[in-house]
Amino acid sequence: MVSPTVNVARYSALFAGVFYGFYHRRTLQAAHNENKVQHAAHDREHLIAEAKEAWQRKQVIASSSDDVVTDPEDPRFDLEKLIAKWEKAT
Known about the structure:
90 residues; mainly alpha; 0% strand; acetylation; ATP synthase F(0) complex subunit e, mitochondrial; hydrogen ion transport
């Protein structure tokens, strides 16, 4: 039979270990959550920068294309302007 002092020491060590594990997991989870937030913010910034670059490229292409609409489904489509542009290119 084990003495009561040894049992108290065992259970004290067990509860201290459980408490430490709980505390350590909370600190690790908090660090992980903060990392996720920073990563999400970085991803949003990257997507915004990518969208701005795409918009700028679109604006440059639109301004250099002499406002000729090449889509026949577009209501602003003008066949004469398109043919004139093709003749200029060749």
